Amino acid sequence: MFNSWRRKAKHLPPGPPGLPFLGNLLQIPSTKQYVTFQNLGNIYGDITTIRMLGSNFIILNSRKAIFDLFDSRSPIYSDRPRVIMSSDLIGWDGSVILANNTPHFRNCRKLMRKGLGPSAAQSFVPFLNRQSSLYLRDLLNRPEAFPDVFKRNAAAISMKVAYGYDGITEDEDMYQLSHEANRYFEETAVVGVWLVDILPILRYVPQWFPLASFQRYAARAKPVVLECINKPFEETKRHMQAQGHLDMENCIKYSSVGISLGQLDTTTASLSWFFMAMALHPEVQAKAQAEIDKVIGNERLPRVEDKESLPYVSAIMQEVFRWQPPVKMVVHSASKDDEYQGYFIPAKTPLIGNIWRVAILHDENVYHDADKFIPERFMEEGAPDCLTDVFGFGRRICPGMLIAQPHMFVSIAVTLATINITKAHDAQGNVIEPKVEDTPGVVSFPVPFKASLQPRSKAALDLIQRSVEHSKTLPERLDVFSLDA
């Protein structure tokens, strides 16, 4: 009893006053929570507490607070808050991204570090280069559907890396299954959106109950999620004629599905923001194209290996991630009681890192004109590298970042080398202005917009066609690397 009293007597970080029982529930909007959290930080400081239905959430609005807790104290702050809707009700209970810092999580992360680490990532480079020409071919064949082209290209790469599977872009059933399962994850993994996550007892409410629409949603989603987790794994296992220990099989299964789905929407979102940026800033596009023409010429496409030789193109990639990070908030949880800057942080408290505040940094002291798209800030202006913020922190840093970054770079580079991206026009010839506005959810997409895509020249079109034909002669197998490296 004394320990319980002492815990309550300690001070949580400050926050806005709320209503009885509801707390701050009515003050937090269903979209753009990161803006509200930044505004609360401006009032109450970089560490802010909000309360909803008896539960505390701590918001971290500064790079220092996020790194101090998520990175420097990662043994304590590597758990995840329990997300009943996503993990228990629709089938993502073994997901690595939702797992606490348990032996299952550590074993999966160890496996993923080996499979996605430096030697593995280097072995994937020829495949990424090969895939880039096929991506351009699909982009020219379906320019109006560029987000779907991004997603199918990401699926081809992630399924190849995760399962060694070829043909995802032709296997419509598998592609749609992955797409739908990923959508269910993104709609249910946002902390605090589903009432059942705040009041877990609601999980026992039957489907027929008038307020149980979440149960009916879960009944639709769970078979899709389980099929997406099991089907590609069982197919791969059957082809390999392999048997293994059940715990290791589960680790491989959930690590593989994490790799295959983790890249789908994040890459699609980032490339979509890149297309919008180029349509809005033709001067940036022209400057990057001039750099590519000078360094690479028009006899071949840019490659992953050209990154250091194309600093302005690299700066564009960084600015895309800074301007509109694909994930604007990350959520960790404390595994035990802790204190920070004189404030008490109880065990199992969710902590929300406001990446939008940290990576985009509306703090003008770090990135001036932070709302504007200015790649030059990463070159002559010497702005700090933002990639360490975008891909997570501590033990929960994105294990696929060594593949995601070269994939993003080569996609941007080959697009700039061969295609002009401009604003679209309607049937009357009026310019359609893209809206710089994002969608709700775990991954931040731009609201749907139109853009006009045209080959830069006849030579660029010929280059794409030659590159596609050449790619067909290259081996589809990934280079061999050692898991012991």
UniProtKB/TrEMBL annotation:
Keywords: Heme, Iron, Membrane, Metal-binding, Monooxygenase, Oxidoreductase, Transmembrane, Transmembrane helix. Its cofactor is heme. It is a single-pass membrane protein. It holds the Pfam family p450. GO terms for cellular component: membrane. Pathway: Secondary metabolite biosynthesis. This is Cytochrome P450. It comes from Phanerochaete carnosa (strain HHB-10118-sp).
